[in-house]
Amino acid sequence: MWIVGSLHFAAESAARCASANTTTCSSASAIQSYALNQYHGESLGATNPFTYSSTGATGCKNIVSASYTYSLYIPFFGTYALPLAATACFP
Fold it and tell me: What residue ranges do the domains of the chain occupy?
């Protein structure tokens, strides 16, 4: 749950930054880095799960999405891959 909440928080913060703080979030890579810095969950390894798009639906200009597969180990049952996702947009 903490990972999903942190993915959502980071995506929302980055989408807001893309709209309101064009100095810090001046490019797609800067927005992705900003989102990764706002993420405070379990380590994601060397990957950056965040993507940015400026071609959203009507009323939604800046979209930041995250997609990550969490590996859950349960003793005696095995390991399960849990797909996690978050999306946020800000005008």
Answer: 2-90
